[in-house]
Specification:
By secondary structure, the protein is α+β, with helices and mostly antiparallel strands. It is built from 9 helices and 21 strands.
């Protein structure tokens, strides 16, 4: 089974062994067997925030393929790990439950959202998440982790850190089985907390708008950036945003031009716009497709023609093609601004 057939960037070689887990029990059994045998393990959801090596994966891939949504109380919803995320968001909007509508259109599965603390348009999952049920590979049992246990940060969680802290690991300690969210029984209205979205809706930040309209406008904004999956649009053949917005000391912000966007990120620190840094370092939309840059990947990979944060597969790219474009952009931004960008997707068997 080729990983390219199960990832949104459509790159990645074959796996030695593939398990499609259609239930929690099947997932736990396959994970336990791989761990006990010492086989390298990769647990895959929607494949949207992972970049796989061209050589493939020399071990067991367990794909979480069990879905479902359960309304456990008037305002609490449980989603299975393999549940398609955007369909789940659509379900909450259809049931008049507010809290996830700004996260419409994000590809992947529900179980992956707490790992990365997925966010967009003024919302992230940590704001609505109550707890996750997870298989603890170290303890060998199912555990429940409350919001406070997950140590959420910007595109970060204790689950993600358990992976990144071990350079040999390809799978975190905790494998999410289901996620519980507490939403607002808002009927049809939701507060809008992001300036671009508020403008699109014709309201002020903090004012409310119909839930269905918020979802519609978010999908439209994301589609305009090539961030809603479309098999016919190569701008969507990506891992999503390739770089996170860097959080830096105030002194670094002071070196940038006055117009450079910056947002408070705690005492003495600000969050910069990776897209602004990329564009103003000379890397425009579609970088990699022009004659001057075609040596990078011969036009097989480029920055999106709609948004400079995405590194895209133009149809026949390899993982190394995507990385060649990303490395050039990362190094160019560092030369121009003295800020080093870091990848948002998990890199499996490859390195930037």
């Amino acid at each position: 089974m080729r990983l390219a057939d199960h990832t949104t960037s459509r790159v990645g070689g074959p796996a030695d062994h593939w398990v499609t887990a259609t239930s929690e029990a099947a997932a736990i059994s396959a994970i336990r067997l791989a761990d006990e045998s010492g086989s390298p393990l990769l647990v895959l959801g929607g494949g949207s925030n992972t970049l796989m090596a061209d050589a493939g994966f020399p071990g067991t891939v367990v794909q979480l393929a069990f879905a479902g949504i359960e309304q456990r109380s008037a305002d609490t919803v449980r989603m299975a790990a393999g549940q398609d995320w955007d369909r789940a968001v659509a379900w909450t909007v259809g049931h008049g439950l507010s809290g996830l509508e700004a996260l419409s259109g994000i590809p992947g599965s529900a179980g992956a959202t707490p790992v990365q603390n997925v966010g967009a348009y003024g919302a992230d999952v940590s704001q609505a998440l109550v707890s996750v049920r997870a298989w603890d590979r170290q303890a060998g049992r199912v555990v429940e982790l409350a919001n406070a246990d997950l140590g959420f940060g910007y595109r970060d969680s204790v689950i993600k850190r358990s992976l990144l802290e071990d350079p040999e690991a390809t799978t975190p300690r905790w494998i999410v089985l289901s996620v519980d969210f507490r939403l607002r029984s808002a009927g049809t209205a939701a507060p809008v907390r992001y300036a671009q979205l508020a403008r699109a809706l014709g309201v002020r930040e903090g004012e409310t708008a119909p839930l269905a309209l918020v979802r519609q406008e978010v999908l439209s904004l994301r589609a305009g950036k090539g961030m809603v999956l479309d098999p016919a649009d190569h701008d969507t053949w990506s891992t999503g945003s390739f770089f996170t917005n860097p959080v830096v000391p105030d002194a670094v912000r002071a070196r940038l031009p006055e117009g450079a966007p910056a947002f408070g990120a705690g005492p003495g620190r600000v969050k910069l716009s990776a897209a602004w840094l990329i564009e103003h370092a000379g890397f425009g939309r579609g970088y990699g497709l022009g004659e001057a840059e075609r040596h990078l990947a011969n036009g097989r990979a480029s920055l999106s023609t709609k948004h400079t944060l995405a590194v895209t597969n133009r149809g026949e790219a390899s993982t190394e093609d995507l990385l060649a474009v990303a490395r050039t952009v990362r190094d160019g931004v560092e030369r121009a601004w003295g800020v080093r960008l870091h990848p948002e997707p998990v890199l499996v068997g490859c390195a930037l």
